[in-house]
Design goal:
The protein has 174 residues and is of the alpha/beta class. The protein has a single domain, classed as 3-Layer(aba) Sandwich (Rossmann fold), CATH 3.40.50. The protein is built from 5 helices and 7 strands. Strands 1, 2, 3, 4, 5, 6 and 7 form a 7-stranded mixed β-sheet that branches. A hairpin with a 2-residue loop joins strand 3 and strand 4. Helix 1 crosses helix 5. The longest helix has 14 residues.
């Protein structure tokens, strides 16, 4: 028996500093989607130099950290927003771990990424490489948490990515 498809989107995010969290929170407000944050089993170090050393090692080796239980299952959703920080020009490893465990064939993926202006990453291409059977749309790249322009950036991005009817309304902002 097939699972019923959820009409609202699923928003899955990993946030270290809170920037990606704010973007996901705004997406939930805009789309009415279900939101799930993922967390690595072992938290990342708080000190910047220790964090940077660990992230560089994980990105270089392709390490996929174990995640805490409770992450959402993509199964019943047709549209997913997946967000993470850009770490050293790559998708944060916790999001890579989550994506690797999901069957995303035939799903629409809308990636979003927070960054601090460092090494660029082509999130659209990277997500498409990790999820070759999904319909991966253009990524939204947000500097820090987007500031006051976040809702306008979300509106523009959602309208640009409405190739075909989305199963949820995309509201207009005033």
């Amino acid at each position: 028996m097939e699972k019923p498809t959820r009409q609202c989107p699923l928003i899955v995010s990993y946030s270290y500093s809170g920037h990606t969290h704010r973007i996901a929170q705004a997406l939930q407000a805009v789309t009415g989607g279900d939101w799930c944050e993922i967390y690595p089993w072992q938290p990342y170090p708080m000190g910047f130099s220790e964090l940077l050393e660990q992230v560089r090692r994980e990105v270089r080796t392709g390490y996929r950290p174990r995640l805490l239980p409770g992450a959402a299952d993509a199964g019943p959703y047709r549209v997913l927003f997946v967000g993470a920080p850009n770490w050293c020009g790559a998708i944060a490893p916790p999001m890579v771990s989550w994506l690797a465990k999901q069957d995303l064939a035939g799903k629409i993926l809308l990636p979003f990424v927070s960054h601090c202006g460092g090494v660029p990453c082509d999130f659209t291409r990277e997500i498409a490489r990790l999820c070759p059977k999904a319909d991966v749309r253009a990524a939204l790249e947000v500097l820090d948490d987007g500031g006051e322009g976040l809702f306008h950036a979300l509106q523009t991005w959602l309208q640009e990515n409405r190739m075909g009817a989305m199963p949820f309304p995309v509201p207009a902002f005033s």
